[in-house]
Amino acid sequence: MAEIQPVHPQGGLAQLSTLLKENRAAKKHVLFFHGGAALAPSILSSFDRGSHMISLLNMLEPDVMAVAKSDLAHKEDELTLRTFEVTFPFVNSNLLDPLTGSNIEGTLPFLTITTGRFILGVMSLIDPEVITDYMPDRAKIVDTTTSILETTKALRVRGADLIILLSDYLPPTIDQWLDSKIIDVALISAPRLPPQPNQKSHNYFELKTDSGVAGILSLTLTKKKPLAEWTGNIRTVSLMGIKKDPIITKKITKETKYLAKILSKKIGKTLTPIDTRQISVRTKENGFANFIADTLRNFYSSDIALINGGAIRGNRHYSAETILTRGDIHRELPFNSRITKIRVTGRQIFLCLENGLSKIENAKGRFPHFSGMRVTYNPDNPPGRRVLTVKIGGIPLNLNKNYTLATLDYLTKGGDGYDILKNSRELVKIGGGKSLWEYVKNRISSEGHISPAIDGRLRAVAN
């Protein structure tokens, strides 16, 4: 959870603190593993790059925290700065910094934890798509199989009786690693995983990162050479039904009070429902995304506008007549993406659409939202062959014609696989553009109300 204020109706850090205290008081050996994705994106992280979250997590005392994709939202050096502020270790086993030939400074490739008579080995994998999604300045992904084999070998040499893998994505060969006992327990956290009920397996657990629950893994270990024998069970606990820790609640209030007046400022009302849930902004046409794209195209008087679904992060549903605040817009658009206007060819536009629709089945953030175009596509076709028709201003797309495009600097730098936009001619300098949230906030403020709607500009035509 990157927001210190929980998304209603889910629980948050104050409830998690109570759960930890209750378990630590009742049991002798309790470990708290954090799956990462805590430093961004959030309202406050756009101001302090995640420092406020570190101060809270230090109070919760994790035994280890994995590095997940969004923890690199502010690049490697900011992650390193956060590691200097923590009282617990960050672990990642498959990211390499070419400058040093080893891990990102401040992070560990693995960790051993001694509890009772046993040594637990902990390693962590980050989704390889972090390179295209967050474009780190220099970090590279190490081959996953190589990372697993080398790290588990190092942990066994150090006496690990049990090896636990933390991962922010589902590795395709996870079953092989478990069956061959290369790793013993896999804890997978990813936003795209479906919500899981209590799972019967004792060595594999999936936790949806935005589901408002904690996973509790209970293990009983028996010492036996060469490795320990063990049994276990896993269950989920909803944080919503747990009493808030008053100490953490007070800390959260202190962290947010300085911005509370600014963020609570009312900017307008939505006359229609707004759905920014991840599945809605990453798999289909979305009314709020249409509103954003229309805003950019109108402001820059461009032929078309394009944003990616991953730019919208609120993961909320607003009913009609909801009064929107500045904090709502910050929460929905937490990245400091700048807007630029570029010249592109019809071929580039076509390839942008193919890229945006290439991973729709995995609900990836590259999913395209646009203004000034009408597109039909077939999701059943293989990636790269999904776009069927494209019209701009009612006229079929001309692959050889030049068009003007208003879009995010993140995409013009190749983010989310939009490499085709790199080196495009700028018609408006990026440095002069406002952040995306400012355009949206200003339009809502000036009009007083909005009515985001779906109008059929992106239509799926299945086989």
Detail the topology: elements first, then pairings.
Blueprint: H1 13-26, E1 33-34, H2 45-48, H3 51-60, E2 64-66, H4 75-83, E3 90-91, E4 95-96, E5 107-108, E6 111-115, E7 118-125, H5 130-134, E8 140-141, H6 144-157, E9 162-167, H7 174-179, E10 185-189, E11 204-207, E12 213-222, E13 229-238, H8 246-263, E14 266-270, E15 274-275, H9 278-281, H10 287-300, E16 304-308, E17 317-318, E18 323-325, H11 326-332, E19 339-345, H12 346-356, E20 368-371, E21 373-377, E22 387-392, E23 395-396, E24 402-408, H13 409-412, E25 425-428, H14 436-447, E26 449-450, E27 458-460
Parallel strand pairs: 1-2, 2-3, 3-5, 7-9, 9-10, 10-11, 14-26, 16-24, 21-27
Antiparallel strand pairs: 4-8, 6-7, 12-13, 14-18, 15-17, 16-20, 19-24, 19-25, 21-22, 22-23
